[in-house]
Write a structure and sequence with these properties.
By secondary structure, the chain is α+β, with helices and mostly antiparallel strands. About 35% of the residues lie in helices and about 35% in strands. It has two domains: about 1-65, 3-Layer(aba) Sandwich (Ribosomal Protein L9, domain 1), CATH 3.40.5; about 75-150, Ribosomal protein L9, C-terminal domain (Ribosomal Protein L9, domain 2), CATH 3.10.430.100. The chain has helices spanning about 25-30, 45-75, 95-110; strands at about 1-5, 20-25, 40, 80-85, 85, 90-95, 115-120, 120-125, 125-135, 140-150.
């Protein structure tokens, strides 16, 4: 059996706040309602969440604009990491996505979750590309350059 619910939070794969969606009765009763992700779609609730929906859409548009601006700033940026090396130019400490996220925050003042950075652990000297997913379909590619520390 299916029921209609009014989403009050974003639910991936289902909708955004203010959407009225059709879900299975058990999903609504056992997950959406207890987790406070949805409420029954009464006239009062619909009016209350119409304003929330408008704010949410404005916020999404703002997120996209900010992500696009950051992608333009990051495009082609190079981040240099000096590291101590041992035989055959192997690094004592690898350069990881968390290191790149910290460097981006220091240079541009923007926090980026290391999980959004696609690069392997860099364990040797050289230049490596790193792809950063900023928002849905907006990405930026930066260069990670690892040099021997003096």
């Amino acid at each position: 059996m299916h029921v209609k619910v009014l989403l009050i939070r974003e639910v991936p794969g289902l909708g955004i706040p203010g959407d009225v969606v059709d879900v299975k009765d058990g999903h609504a009763r056992n997950y959406l309602f207890p987790q406070k992700l949805a409420v029954p779609p009464t006239a009062h609730a619909m009016a209350r969440f119409a304003k929330l929906r408008a704010q949410y859409k404005t916020e999404l548009a703002d997120r996209r604009t900010r992500a696009q601006a950051l992608a333009e700033k990051l495009a082609g940026a190079e981040f240099v990491f000096p590291r101590r090396v041992h035989d055959e130019d192997k690094l004592y400490a690898a350069v990881r996505p968390a290191d790149l996220a910290r460097a981006i925050e220091e240079r541009f003042g923007e926090k980026i979750d290391p999980d959004r950075i696609r690069m392997g652990a860099v364990e040797a000297l050289g230049e490596y590309p790193a792809e950063i997913t900023l928002y849905e379909d907006i990405t930026a590619t930066v260069m990670v350059k690892v040099e021997a520390a003096a």
